[in-house]
Amino acid sequence: MVTPFPLPEPMRLALDLARAAALAGEVPIGAVVTRGGQVIATGENRNRRDHDPTAHAEIVAIRSAAASLGAERLTNCDLWVTLEPCAMCAGAIAHARIARLYYAANDPKGGGVEHGARVFAQPQCHHRPEVLGDIGGQESGDILRAFFAKRR
User: Fold this and answer.
1) In the chain, N or C terminus with fewer CB closer than 10 Å?
2) What's the DSSP call for residue 8?
3) How does pLDDT run across 55-71, given as a tens digit for each residue?
């Protein structure tokens, strides 16, 4: 299903990356890092292709953005991702000092932001980005459901 209102371009790009990941046999999740409205880096799930359990879309995009900017801190950067980040990715987001996290679909089973571990709510978390969810959630959920329906 297509969202009835225009999505911000970074989320549209993240959804396109999720579709590309699905075509490559990966769980369809895409991520985009922006700064000042400009795309700095993109990522899609690459776990199977890279034989790397940490190659989630968010991690791939954060690594690429850090390399592009020549800095380990991504201050004033925003992360757009098609699924609520897991606890590992939420930890990386905090360590990278991402300013704002925008995500599409909720992940009640594996999410680590508003579900599960709620990483940013823990007192040990030294940085808490602004979080905005359900931006293109229906479309992202449709992509994920279609991907897993083909595998059942």
Assistant:
1) C
2) P
3) 999 999 999 999 999 99
Identify which of 57, 74, 52 has the alpha carbon closest to the alpha carbon of residue 65. 74
pLDDT above 90 as % of the chain: 95
HSE-up of residue 26 (Cα within 13 Å, Cβ side): 23
What angle do the packed helices 137-151 and 9-23 form, to 10 degrees? 0
- Report H helices in the chain: 9-23, 47-50, 57-69, 87-96, 137-151
Q: From the candidates 44, 58, 84, 139, which is the catalytic residue?
A: 58
Q: Are 6 and 99 in contact (CB under 8 A)?
A: no
- For residues 149 and 42, give the distance between their C-alpha atoms in angstroms, rounded to a whole number: 26
94/18 Cα distance (integer angstroms): 23
Contact indicator for 121, 69 with CB cutoff of 8 Å: no
Q: Is 139 a catalytic residue?
A: no
User: pTM (2 decimals)?
Assistant: 0.95
Beta strands 100-105 and 30-35 are: unpaired
